[in-house]
Structure formats: C-alpha cells, structure tokens
Amino acid sequence: MKKRIGSVAIVVKKREKVSNQINKILSKNADCIIGRMGIPSAEHGLSMISLIVEGTPDEIGAITGQLGSLPGVNLKSALTSVEVE
User: Fold this and answer.
1) pTM for this one?
2) What Å distances lie between residue 61 and 1, 45, 56, 67, 78, CA to CA?
3) Gene3D superfamilies attached here (predicted)?
4) Cys-Cys crosslink for 35: which of 45, 49, 52, 81, Cβ 3.0 to 4.6 Å?
C-alpha cells in the first residue's frame, strides 16, 4: 500500500489526565509524523494538536485509533489522494 499525506486535528479535554499517553503514542509513531503543533486554550479548558502525517491508511488509522480511544480526546483525520514513495 502506498503512503499518503494527510492531517489529524486533535482536541483534548483535561489534558493533564492523558498528556503522557498522547505523547507516548505520538513518539512511538514519530516516523509517520511530518509536523506537529500544539496550542492550549485556557479560556475553553482545551488543548489542540495539529499533525501533518505521511503513511499508509492503515498506519494513520492505527495512530488515530489509539488516540481516539483515550478519554477526553476527540479527533478528525483526513488523507489526501496524493501518494508518495
């Protein structure tokens, strides 16, 4: 299966409860992550993480599945049709 470029938008409630788990998942899958940006929102009590990813749909699905199973984590992912070597 060919690799594709995509993005993952993550919103985290109560970051202090799951931040260690999120960081472990992202570190374990660092080879698929091209870029990462995190922005806290004290006003709303949320943290947002934006990822630019490169991997097969199965690899990206595994990452989002692990993250999405954490309590207080909501996410959306989108893969482009652009295939890369």
Assistant:
1) 0.91
2) 13, 27, 8, 10, 10
3) ACT-like. Chain A, domain 2
4) 52
